[in-house]
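Notes from the 1:1 (GR / supervisor)

We went over the backlog. Supervisor wanted to see one worked example end to end before approving the batch request, so GR pasted a single chain during the call. The sequence is below; no edits were made to it. Supervisor asked that the structure be written out right there so they could see what the output format looks like.
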Amino acid sequence: MDRTRKKPRGIRKAHEESKAAENEEVENAGDEDNEAGEPTTVEIAFEESGKSSDPDVAEIEALFETAKAKMKTGDDETAILLLRGAVHECDKLLRKRNGEGDEQPTEKSSEDVPSIPPEFHLVYGQALYELGMLEGSYEDHQAGKKRKSKDSKAAFFDAAIERLKVGLEVSASSQDEQPVTEKLRMALAVAFLSKATFGLRLGKSEKSVESSVDEATNWFGPGERSESDRIVFADLLQRHADLSTNSKYRIKWNGAAENIFKTVLEDGNASVVDALVGIGSCKLSLANMLFEEAEDKEKDVDEKRATEYIDSALEYFTKAKAQVEGFDARLLCLIGETLVLRGNLEEEKSEDMYKEAVKCFKEVLHTEADALPTQFLEFIKSLEQPDDEE
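Structure output shown during the call:
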């Protein structure tokens, strides 16, 4: 049996490649302002009140939290309008108090603004960051706009980073301890790492983006981090590593992500499942790396190393599944993919491995069809339909 014919690409690789396709630059077809006729205003109740003692900032915080709630439900259209509203209100507040501000995300002042609390810069930077993450998602495709996503995304990330750094300057200038400081550092870590990941998606070299990854890890630590922060950052770092085609780079940053996940395991609290899945994903990424290298160089897979990675990945995924109550599409897809790789290695057991993988994929297909990546659906069909060429 052909060991490579039925091998689907990694689930994260497929996800990132689809995102990269979305980010391809297209020609500007004309006026971008309301070209598709989408609403420019929205009336909606705030999800919750802001936490800042400054009433103006609290209002912006509430607007931002409402936007995040819309993102969680998949309502990108409304989220974009709310985020734009938050950025607009931030600019207005700067002009009102300091004569500063510009509604273009590419030109933000880096001057210290002591009359405005640091949590203002946090919510401002986060709103810019989230707009960058959504840029090219809703607008380019669902609204039918023709935008230069590469430039706009980078501008939003850079503006977010600059604003968050201003927040740290403001926080540092206060004589009182500022709880918001660690939130600003975490937000900077995420922004720098996302900027690096976006660079890899655009085809930039690992060397050109690694300085941003180094910045991200510096902002992330040292310091005590909550389990949720560690899970978020390690997951982003693992996904970033998974995009790389450079084996040394991929091993380095998967290893860094794994080490963070392991600190969560050591705590033994509620995030253990996420940590188990995270470590398994690191191992799976390295297994996929070996298959990709073998395919690219037209040589045999390093079976010893691949088996170690695959067995380790399955071990962590199985432990996670034992602690999950109910259905988990992502975990089932990861287990299925790992079983396919094992089948590719062990020819005598390949059919059994493939059947077990199909069971995982079909469970996802029948329960939450949209959660099953296309290449896994095609894998099911390749096993169940005769191959006319054979």
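Supervisor's comment: The longest helix spans residues 272-297.
Batch request approved.
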